[in-house]
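dumping the sequnces here before i forget
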Amino acid sequence: MAGLTRAEEFVLVAVFELGDEAYGVSIRRHLARRAGRRLSLGAVYGSLERLSREGYLEPRLGAATPVRGGRRKRLFRLTPKGRSALNSARRREERLWGKVAALRNIRSGAR
Amino acid sequence: MTPMGRRQTPAVPPRWAERLLELLVAREEREAALGDFLEEFRGRAAESGRRAAAHEYWRELLLSSPHFLRRRFERSLLGRGMLMDTKSGVRQALLGLVLIAPALLLVVTGVLQSAGLLSDSQGRSLADQATGLLRGLYHPAVILGGLLLAFALNIRPLLRVDLKRQPQAIVGTVTVRGRLWNLVSVGLALGLLGAILGYAFVENFRVVPTHVAQRNVPASEVRAWDASETVVLRLYDVTSDTRTIWVLPVSPTPVGNDP
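..and the predicted 3d for all of it:
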């Protein structure tokens, strides 16, 4: 997972959670809703582009919709490398937050 | 449908903003990006009205444009070349450019003087007024040594030569890497070396008439000798306080004593 920024980790999580509907707009909305991070579309594209180039994501073109003026979406899905990176990130986060949870228990006297 | 039963036309984003977006986005990403922007615009227009949506469209475009410009640059030939540079390669190239700097200054000053964009006295004063360490930078050994060192430093990341011994022959493979910074450094070093050596060759092999006289004059008087228009050749050695000049024997007065 080394070399990925925090924003890229968030994008990986969003792509995983959105499944077959992961594209620029939906990823941005997901990040705003779930992580409270309001990124520009350009910033989302930047992360998506880098993750695709590094082999974490696989882009493909979706169907055209009227709300998009007949333009197709660029959909993304996780590759095995992306899944593995996501797993590593999750394990690292758990290790990190596990310590913090223990500290909170001490302070609240629960331990 | 509206209450009147007419079909409501979908909101259209600001025309100029959409054009600008089309221009900024690389062709491969254009369809998806325009679609994303339009989808966001229409969603916002339905919630807050077209005016707020148009404002947001422009804002989004401005915030996203650095990304689009960077992507376009990365996809260009120049960008691809730069992206292949490694950190150590760039460091070597920058060091090379520092080594090249004195030669570059010398040549640029000379070219500007020849083109009449810099007076002879202005150009010469750069070197003449230099003292101490700065004067040392104009020493031929520093200038030529710097160029050769810059070339040697930057040719290695740029070229790789592999020699393989075969039963009947030795096979050599030359690999040229697309590292733009090193290429610029090598190109500048070679170009300046060529210019300086070429100039020195032309000057040294210039036919000097036998009747001219060689004189050693203080550097401060060279300008006056130049003004007398009797100087045939001037040896431009800025590391010394005296200059060697060759003058026509008929030179009447050296120091600008025009009637």
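Helices of chain A lie at 6-18, 24-35, 41-53, 80-107.
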